[in-house]
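Collaborator request, handled under Task 6.
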Amino acid sequence: MNTRNAQIHGGRTHSLRVLAVPGSLRDGSYNRALVRAACELAPDSVLVEPYDVAEIPFYDEDVEAAGDPEPVSRFKRAIDRADALLIATPEYNAGPSGVLKNALDWASRPPRTSVLAGKPVAIMGASPSRGGTARAQAQLALVLESTGAAIVPNGQLRVAHASAKFDDTDVPTLADNETRHALRTLLEALHRAVDAAGTAIPGPDSHQAGITDPSTSMPEPAAA
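Structure tokens returned to the collaborator:
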């Protein structure tokens, strides 16, 4: 279990370590770009460390019974070392990506005593549509609630119309100043929640504190 201590990284002292998990494997993903932006925009006191879940195998209870595969053990150790999680989810068919759900299924084991239990979490997501991954985030919040993780107050950021917020390159960069400010605000909210400790998990609709379009009724295209 993580015990918070000030850490020195790149010549700076950090009091909070955040593990940032993108739910997409594609290099050109807007959600991987959100994680890169979080690393760039984090306050000096916060160290954001990206984590790629590409190597985690499909969850299989028979495999688990023989012992966690090394990629799973590595993921669990990374979560345990972190003070908090930051998850960037795309939206596929109105839900989070399979690769992200699979990683969380592994991390949620064993039930009630997993590395996710009590772990503060913030959620973000970017989509080309006007929904900003709203439905994926709502489902993800339910998944995290079932593991005992703690979604922090003001702990969700929805980035709609993502093609207008990122530059047009093969590996996009978050360019929109308002969204950059909202992302930094999300990280500050995560830091405050960890400092306050004992965060309870409210209902999924009460977590949003980011940029979103209020109309989310249209189908959401894939937004890796």
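The cover message to the collaborator said: "Residues 198-221 have pLDDT under 50 and may be disordered. The longest helix spans residues 177-196. Please let us know whether this matches your experimental observations."
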